[in-house]
Amino acid sequence: MNPMRVSRPAVTLLIVLLGYLTLPMSMSGTTIALPEIGRDLDASGPALQWVVTGYFLTASAVMLVAGSLGDLFGRRKVYATGAALYTVGTLVASTAQDILLLDATRTLAGAGAAGVMAGGGAILASTFEGPARTRVFAAVGTVAGIGIAVGPSLSGLLVGSYGWRTTFLVFGVAGVVILSATFFMQESKAALRPRVDRPGAATFIAGLALTMFAITQSGTARWLGLAAGAALLVVFVRVERRSDHPLLDLALIRHRGFMGWIVGGTAIAMGSSGVMIFFPTYLQGASGLSAGGAGLVMLLMTAPVFVVPQLGARLVNRGVPPRHLLVTALGLSAVGNALLAVLLHPGAGVAQLAAPLVLIGVASGLAMGLVDGQAMSMVDAARVGMASGVLNTVRAGSNSLMMAVFGAALISLLHGRLDDAALAADVAAGKLPGTQQAFLAGEFTYVWQLALGAVAALMAAATVLVHRMLRPLPEGPAATAAARPARSLAR
After folding, report:
1. CA dihedral sign of residues 286, 289, 290, 294
2. Could you say which architecture CATH assigns to the domain 9-196+245-488?
3. What is the pLDDT of residues 28-60, one digit of tens each?
């Protein structure tokens, strides 16, 4: 063993938390920089949105593969490789002179983020057990929440004072620190090392990436891409069924409890991602706030995650059923989105926005860490990488889907009301011409209200569904049958 590497759980936790702090900070902070990036690189519409969407799309497509490779080759190696890709992509992004290069480097950074997030969760799940695992994943939620909360404010200050390039430079330097720290981590992996499921990895990455990319397109390209992506995912399932070393054990998907936590975590992410990613642009465009001012307003939503994850962990360790906390979080997200739709208007201040944004933030905080810890407690230690990959793939994929759909919906609704595709793209990017500013701000607000109403309805439906999925089964043959997939994972 390398003498520099230590096995003390506290050191491992500190290093993993460093990644969970930086990557969410980079994600939420980038949204603040979008309007200035658009002005500087003369970009709008899908090309500008890809700065954020491409990052999430790539991360979601690679996370399952990253998690499973961690079980086989070493979770520290996957974490370190991810940190290296993220760092290179982010540093090069700070030098980009056109939107295509910026999109490409953000896509590379997203691939790196997959390794950091999936590898980090697997490392913690293999290091901690029982109540300690609950506390550790609550710490993950708190730290990630701090990153999300600080990201917009920090980026707003950097963008306002030094320009958007400095934002990527700062996050790239943080990536260097994360990469350097991985040399002090102890390695962990499964005891047995089967062959890599190359057909499964290839069909999954290609199928998911093609599907997610198609959603961002329009017309014939969208439908052809969706059809091809769906076909590849069907092939992936067939490959996994026949493989003796699958990238994804389909027993995980058949387990109702595991999937209940997956669906709940996915819904929570979808309930906040539209507001997190696009609302700063609305505040700068329709309300005339600066980047720094928009970042401060977003603290209303992100600040609760400083404390709520730890509160959730204490409640669980004191006997409160975790499923009750998740269902409560989903209900709060539904109410928060609905309330924001009702209260939103151009120039809305802190007093009007506080209640809905805080509710959405509390909902995210309750689920942060709780979902990861509960879902990965259902699998054996040899497959925590796979479980982490599934969890992060679905969550990141839903984030990518939500961002693509939400952004496309805003542009499409604006196009329908303004009857001008170029103007609709500009308004969605926060560019409201001065002569029409009041009118366009009203139209921008109206389409936001429609989108928020749809999200609120989705969260209400998810609340009911997750409540049913996580409801304890009655004793008897049905309960025994439902438990079989979980036991099959411990072979």
Report:
1. negative
2. Up-down Bundle (1.20)
3. 678 778 888 888 888 877 788 788 878 877 877
